[in-house]
What we know:
This protein is α/β, with parallel strands linked by helices.
Amino acid sequence: xxxxxxxxxxxxxxxAISGAxxxxxxxxxxxxIPTAIGKVNETLxxxxxxxxxxxxxxxxxxxxxxxxxxELINLIKTNKIIIxxxxxxxxxxxxxxxxxxxxxxxxxxxxxxxxxxxxLKIHKNNTRLKAMEDIVLLSDVYDMWRTNHIDFDKAVGINxxxxxxxxxTPAQFRDRFVDNPQIQFSKKERxxxxxxxxxxxxxxxxxxxxxxxxTFKNHNFYITECDSPTDYTKYLLMNELIDKGIDMFIFKFxxxxxxxxxxxxxxxxxxxNVWYDDIGCVGHKxxxxxxxxxxxxxxxxLN
Length: 303
């Protein structure tokens, strides 16, 4: 293993816990960077340009590289970049056919679970890593949308702690569970959860009031602008509009070019990645986003 570790992890519940697993193993010898799926290539390119990777290994956890970057693919093939991810799309499937087998892609479990299991293979006796088991499980329950799981509501509450306005940033959320992986919450954390619960109805109402349907290539797209709603709020909105024949929901975050994308269960769209050329969306088949670099494609759809 290299002397230095850089971990880029997804800036959500799942990604932050994958980063926490990395940090309990590598500690201060590593650098841990939360980022969005759409910013992975940009962030990696900056790292590669700014420093030599001679003694450095970069781990992408709950993330993979985006399309069309031969330099980054070569770094994966030479083990300078290692990927633990679960975002299955045509690009990642092809990528994983040609890269070393210790990279892991598995759509059946979340990124934190993959990271935890892969690290346990190498660090079997790390008690701090073993202690992450419960929060890793809850990350899987939330990120894989296991709504019938007995602890789904608890997982929703933990996700509510992620809030730039009143809760934790992704880095703070990660470090909170590095310092204390137990599922016991302070008064401050419980207050954040209570506030988020009250905000949920307001966010839902605003997204319904501000949203509109745009028909493109015989598919219906629901587009709304919002203040960074949780995935659970998006889920509630899709349930409210389930009979409207909507094929894709696009959530544009206010004052940014960042967009989240969701495919409802009754959609004619089976894989949002098929719409990359038209809209720029990437991710899971039914959940992903539109990178800022691809936002111009969405503007064309709106016009």
